[in-house]
Write a structure and sequence with these properties.
Length: about 425
């Protein structure tokens, strides 16, 4: 059964947590003890109904303030699909949390308050969706009950967002008018919006086609662990454990080990001690090669016909997570899958104005800022560019003094 991972994003009080709570409630995906806990919390909506948003507000501060701070993950399934939902915080202060949740999502649901329309956080989250190369955007115009379910309001917001999407080059965008509080167009069709004839949210999620990696794009295999038990039963066993990125990995493929550049051939694929002829995107497997070559944790095994880039200097978009501004004189660590390398931010080229997407020159990169930088590494970095293979263009930056993740980067090109 296919798994769809999606994230909800929007401004504070746009109704993200309520939408997820309604989706879980109306699909009977809430356990009895969870429902009892919600009722005991005694947090009510204005109409006296139980506040379903509390389902995703896991932190005590979230329940007290009625806002989302951390990224909350929820799971449910229907006969068609399994779903993993990330509820991202809407406040600008927690933009870094939204980046974290979106980095592993197939689809983003951007909520817009029907009374407010496209606002700053809408633009910020849409810009992040474009940077992270999310394949599908769904705009849910929420709180339609607060504007008398007006088709004119919905169409005006749709037109405004379409202009933003065109500017950001978001190609696959769909729109649904909803009321998460009342349940309109979430699981059940709305009788109060007869002018809307498209699918409801659940129907959309069950049927949306998410673009996956093409075999023509190649595959990547970051080595997590070298498996050498050296036991009496397996004295000569040598395998390489990791997770497949992309499609097309099969026994017999010619490969290159990066960054060394040594070539070999896949002699076997193993999953739970069972041999496979092919491995799918996202599968954690053990690869066997025809030759005994020097491979360590952090190396990459890649398809010889579609190799990755290797370089010590490259340009990247960066999202900054730390209270301290980015310091071009500081040595940081770059972690790309299991590979950790020492780096310096050689230059801040510019910072983005997320409202206008303009480039601002000569400014510091501070908490929640997004900009473009040039990075220099102490050794060869194996990567792909966002344009060619977005799933292997992402990495995190760590401050070695505190071991805190201070930023995330999306590599654009070799410098």
């Amino acid at each position: 059964m296919q798994i769809l991972k999606f994230i909800t994003a929007g401004s504070v009080d746009d109704g993200k947590s309520t939408l997820i709570g309604r989706l879980l409630y109306d699909t009977n995906s809430i356990l009895d003890d969870q429902l009892e806990a919600i009722q005991r919390a005694n947090r009510k909506n204005d109409d006296g109904t139980v506040d379903l948003a509390i389902l995703t507000d896991g932190l005590k501060a979230e329940r007290e303030q009625g806002i989302t701070i951390d990224v909350a993950y929820k799971y449910f399934q229907t006969e068609s699909r399994k779903f993993i939902i990330a509820d991202a915080p809407g406040h600008i202060q927690y933009t870094r949390n939204m980046v974290t949740g979106a980095s592993n999502s197939d689809l983003i649901i951007i909520l817009i308050d029907a009374r407010k329309g496209v606002i700053e956080q809408t633009k910020r989250h849409s810009f992040l969706a474009a940077l992270l190369s999310l394949k599908q955007v769904l705009v849910c115009v929420n709180k339609m009950d607060m504007v008398d379910f007006s088709s004119e309001v919905f169409e005006n917001i749709k037109a405004d967002y379409a202009q933003l999407a065109q500017k950001l080059r978001l190609e696959k965008v769909d729109y649904i008018p909803v009321s998460a509080l009342k349940g309109d167009n979430i699981v059940y069709p709305s009788v109060r919006m007869p002018w809307y004839t498209g699918p409801g949210l659940l129907e959309y999620l069950e049927n949306v086609e998410i673009e996956t990696s093409s075999p023509a794009q190649g595959w990547r295999f970051p080595v997590q662990w070298v498996v050498r038990p050296q036991s009496e039963d397996l004295p000569d066993y040598r395998g390489y454990a990791g997770r497949v990125i992309g499609e097309g990995l099969r026994t017999g493929d010619e490969v290159i080990i990066l960054p060394s550049g040594v070539r070999s051939t896949v002699s076997g694929i193993e999953l739970d001690r069972n041999p496979l002829e092919t491995a799918e995107n996202g599968q954690s497997v053990i690869l066997h090669l025809a030759d005994d070559v020097d491979i360590s944790r952090g190396d990459f095994i890649v398809q010889a016909s579609h190799p990755s880039e290797t370089a010590r200097s490259f340009e990247a978009d960066i999202a900054w997570f730390d209270q301290k501004p980015l310091d071009t004189g500081q040595v940081y660590l770059l972690q790309n899958h299991s590979k950790v390398s020492r780096i310096k931010i050689a230059e801040v080229e510019y910072k983005y104005d997320v409202n206008t997407q303009e480039q601002l020159f000569g400014e510091e990169i501070r908490l929640n800022d997004i900009g473009k930088v040039r990075i220099k590494a102490a050794d060869e970095i194996v990567f792909d560019t966002r344009r060619n293979f977005p799933e292997n263009s992402r990495a995190i930056i760590i401050d070695p003094r505190t071991n805190i993740t201070v930023g995330a980067v999306i590599i654009q090109e070799v410098a």
